[in-house]
Amino acid sequence: MATMSSREFNQDVGKAKRVARIEPVFITDRGRPTHVLMSFEAFRQISGQTESIIDLLAMEDEVEVGAAGDAWDKPRRTGL
Predict the structure, then answer these.
(1) Contact 34, 5 (CB under 8 A)
(2) CATH number of 6's domain
(3) Which of 4, 51, 72, 73 has its CA 20 to 30 A from that of 24?
């Protein structure tokens, strides 16, 4: 497990992301762990999520837009 202070994290987010591809990164604030950064794949494994982004995008064709989708078709008021 890797650990970074919140200051280190803010100064080098790219490094934290690179390390998180390999192992979870614990972000600390005043020496206490407050957040965990991990790869999306690791998150999927621990959450039991089985769908991939490809599966979710494929479902878009099967989903029928209901009344909520109609709001996008209404003209917006402009001029404040």
Answers:
(1) no
(2) 3.40.1620.10
(3) 51
